[in-house]
């Protein structure tokens, strides 16, 4: 059982294959049936354009903050949104400030911005100094961000990524200067803070869906479809689990516990590699 | 390198790196060991540390270039940039000096400890070398260490009276070792090794370990009194921790302000949120319990049932989305997303 904590059991391997296996298939399907694909409207994502437009009208810059997000899937999801925002900002001829906490992602962010400006034919407008490394420390980053928001008088603030205790400090900084704010976080503990302080908030997986909604790019839409398929599967497993546990409780038996589900095929799997 | 080749190389490397972690997690321990993945794990971890360190340099370079430009062009707020760069330089410089001082002290302590280890191994290690040669080697090493330590001891302040004994003991012990080694070299008789073993008792190691511990404590004390150490402590404990705490304390005010905004009843949802927040607050405080004993029960239910369910829902959704995104990165599906080609596809 201890080994199972560090290494996947066969059930996890099967679940992994079932959950991510359809990605290439669905991406291919979306490429062929682009017009038939429907992506549910997300009010928070629509608000991105509104916020950028308002900031541009006022002649104020926008900011895109990723909090404490390190290199990983969340960063990639954020980069997808940043790419779209930067393209719009290039059209509006407004600046997008991107303060960074992770030095590892600095080059990736700069590349994404450069690509976005280039792809809409505004390469000359791209200013690398808008991508600024503040600090790796949580509160040093927050204080740097607050200073930047006040100095630059930011008109639209976008907060996407993984956040911790600094979330409210960041969002309040935008509130104080009257910036329109749109946030999205995968950290459920921080979502209430964003709901209180931001105009629109994307919750959990909506952060990953935002990029697909904005770009309608087949890879992203196909992945979104895979996520929905995975969610349906997980909901199904939860319902089965609830039913089995209810029967167990009523009959006072233990037909199929979570432990036995987890260890299903464990011995066979380990024996296979001996 | 042609763009196409560079692309293929980066995709291949991404796939291989992802494959390593996938195999490390999906295969059982026996297979991981058999494939040599466990053995490579440490090197790969060091690789990550190296990449992180290089990336940090990139971050520092970014700071220098951004604020350096601001200062050289005397843009508004240049003085803040100058303060930042001076602070950065001071922190790096003083931190570096403190690290060097600690490293040097650790090396000295290791020297003392190594005398004991050496003495122990002369007697106890199976070696093709005769005892006399081992003793000669040890004598040479002993001389080198004693010389180093003596020169180091001369440079240390001797006003810490409680630690003078340690230094004296160390000097006495090293002198004894010198004379012992000279004796061995002069009178050694390979045919009577068992007699010579008396010179290298197990106790030697214990003695030297004890001296090394005392010496280490003394050096730490000296280091703590140094200017570099004081400055380092001032930067981290005096400035950094205090400023960090000050930023964190802002949260108390901000939470109140945010709660005030959230509690304004503008819709059915905000009314529900306010009602549940009031119940949670009442259930958490003694005033609420005094009003009704039902508040803690309802509070617990709110936190454990609806709130917990929502938390888990968000986490499951985000985890699934993260998994799919990670898979896309692994098989380099993601790389087309931000490029012109990707949009055209």
Description:
The complex is a heterodimer of chains A (274) and B (345). With 274 residues, chain A is an alpha/beta fold. Chain A has helices at residues 2-6, 10-20, 22-32, 43-58, 73-92, 106-119, 138-152, 167-176, 191-197, 206-215, 218-251, 258-262, 266-272, and strands spanning 62-67, 96-100, 131-133, 156-162, 180-185, 200-203. A six-stranded parallel beta sheet of chain A has the order 3-2-1-4-5-6, with helices on both faces. By secondary structure, chain B is mainly α. Chain B has helices spanning 3-26, 29-34, 37-72, 78-124, 131-155, 161-187, 193-196, 203-225, 227-262, 268-284, 286-291, 294-330, 340-344. Chain B is extended. Chain B is built from 13 helices and no strands. Classes of the chains: A alpha/beta (274), B mainly alpha (345). At the A-B interface, helix 2, helix 3, helix 5, helix 6 and strand 3 of A face helix 2, helix 3, helix 9, helix 12 and helix 13 of B.
Quaternary state of this entry equals: heterodimer
* pLDDT < 50 stretches of chain B: 340-345
For the sheet with most strands of chain A, the description reads:
6 strands, parallel
Q: How do the helices and strands follow one another from N- to C-terminus of chain B?
A: HHHHHHHHHHHHH
| DSSP summary, beta strand count of chain A | 6
> What is Rg of chain A?
22 Å
Counting DSSP H or I runs of 4 or more residues, the number of helices of chain B is 13
Structural class of chain B: mainly alpha
Give a short account of the largest sheet of chain B: none
Task: List the main descriptive attributes of the protein structure presented here.
heterodimer, A: 274 residues, alpha/beta, 6-stranded parallel sheet, 13 helices, 6 strands, 60% helix, disordered N terminus, B: 345 residues, mainly alpha, disordered C terminus
């Amino acid at each position: 059982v201890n080994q199972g904590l560090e290494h996947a059991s066969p059930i996890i391997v099967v679940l992994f294959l079932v959950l991510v296996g359809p990605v290439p298939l669905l991406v291919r399907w979306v490429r062929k049936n682009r017009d038939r694909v429907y992506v549910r409207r997300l009010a928070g994502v629509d608000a991105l354009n509104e916020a950028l437009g308002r900031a541009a009208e006022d002649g104020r810059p926008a900011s895109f903050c990723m909090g404490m997000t390190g290199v990983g899937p969340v960063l990639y999801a954020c980069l997808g949104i940043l790419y779209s925002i930067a393209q719009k900002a290039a059209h509006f001829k407004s600046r997008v400030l991107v303060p960074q906490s992770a030095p590892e992602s600095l080059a990736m962010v700069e590349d994404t911005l450069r690509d976005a400006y280039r792809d809409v034919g505004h390469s000359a407008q791209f200013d690398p100094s808008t991508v600024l490394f503040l600090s790796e420390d949580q509160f040093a980053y927050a204080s740097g961000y607050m200073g930047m928001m006040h100095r630059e008088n930011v008109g639209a603030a976008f907060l996407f990524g993984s956040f911790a205790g600094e979330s409210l400090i960041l969002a309040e900084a935008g509130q104080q200067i009257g910036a329109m704010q749109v946030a999205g976080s995968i950290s459920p503990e921080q979502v209430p803070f964003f709901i209180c302080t931001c105009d629109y908030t994307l919750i959990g997986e909506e952060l990953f869906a935002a990029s697909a909604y904005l770009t309608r790019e087949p890879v992203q839409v196909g992945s979104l479809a895979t996520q929905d398929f995975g969610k349906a599967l997980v909901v199904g497993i939860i319902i089965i689990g609830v039913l089995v546990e209810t029967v167990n409780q009523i009959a006072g038996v233990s037909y199929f516990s979570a432990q036995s589900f987890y260890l299903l095929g464990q011995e066979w799997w380990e024996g296979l590699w001996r | 390198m042609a763009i196409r080749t560079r692309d293929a190389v980066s995709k291949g490397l991404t796939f291989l790196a992802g494959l390593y972690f996938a195999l490390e997690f999906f295969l059982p321990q026996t297979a991981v060991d058999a494939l040599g993945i466990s053995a490579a794990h440490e090197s790969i971890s060091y690789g990550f540390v190296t990449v992180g360190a290089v990336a940090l340099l990139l971050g520092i370079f970014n700071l220098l270039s951004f604020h350096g430009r601001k200062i050289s062009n005397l843009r508004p707020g240049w003085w803040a940039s100058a303060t930042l760069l001076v602070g950065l330089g001071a922190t790096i410089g003083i931190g570096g000096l403190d690290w060097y001082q600690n490293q040097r002290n650790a090396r000295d302590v290791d020297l003392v400890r190594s005398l004991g280890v050496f003495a122990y191994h002369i007697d106890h290690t199976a070696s093709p070398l005769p005892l006399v040669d081992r003793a000669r080697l040890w004598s040479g090493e002993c001389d080198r260490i004693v010389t180093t330590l003596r020169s180091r001891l001369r440079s240390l302040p001797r006003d810490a009276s409680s630690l003078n004994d340690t230094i004296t003991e160390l000097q006495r012990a090293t002198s004894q070792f010198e004379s012992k080694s000279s004796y061995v070299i002069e009178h050694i008789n390979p045919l009577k090794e068992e007699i010579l073993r008396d010179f290298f008792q197990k106790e030697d190691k214990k003695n030297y370990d004890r001296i090394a511990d005392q010496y280490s404590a003394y050096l730490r004390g000296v280091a703590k009194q140094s200017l570099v150490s004081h400055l380092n402590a001032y930067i981290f404990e005096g400035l950094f921790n205090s400023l960090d705490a000050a930023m964190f304390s802002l949260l108390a005010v901000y939470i109140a302000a945010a709660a005030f905004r959230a509690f304004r009843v503008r819709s059915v949802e905000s009314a529900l949120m306010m009602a549940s927040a009031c119940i949670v607050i009442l259930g958490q405080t003694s005033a609420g319990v005094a009003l009704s004993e039902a508040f803690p029960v309802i509070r617990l239910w709110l936190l454990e049932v609806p709130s917990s369910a929502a938390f888990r829902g968000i986490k499951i959704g985000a985890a699934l989305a993260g998994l799919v995104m990670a898979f896309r990165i692994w098989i380099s599906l993601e790389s087309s997303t931000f490029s012109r080609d990707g949009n055209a596809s």
